[in-house]
Queue: 2 jobs
Job 1
Amino acid sequence: VYACNKLFLDQLCRNEERWRVDLVCSAKERILYYQETHLLPYLMTQMSQKNIASFLHMAPETFSKLLHKL
């Protein structure tokens, strides 16, 4: 039971951190955060850039421009 509770709390903390990133960070900072957490490279193999941009709360054009600058 303890292991299950620990996993739940770990996931809750990650979700809270992602919520803060999505709410507070600029578009560029969101891309950098998701690159550092290795989620963005995975998403790039699974989803279209349009859907990733939506996930990151930005226009597809903004995502494309920032991605090429980084």
Job 2
Amino acid sequence: PYIIFNNPSSNGVFEINIDKFDKILITSISGRYVDESKSKIIDLSAQPKGVYLLHIYKDDKRYIKKVICQ
């Protein structure tokens, strides 16, 4: 239901191509809370390089996508 552009990312910025969603919860791969967003642009440039999970909430469903900051 969505596409993530710039994955993996060298600058930590990702764009999600999705019509509408409720929120995006961002966690580290180990499950640590990083941020929450209601924007289609996710900026992880201030975070350490690594793997993160985007939990996309839409219509009472949750989709999880792995993104990589290089």
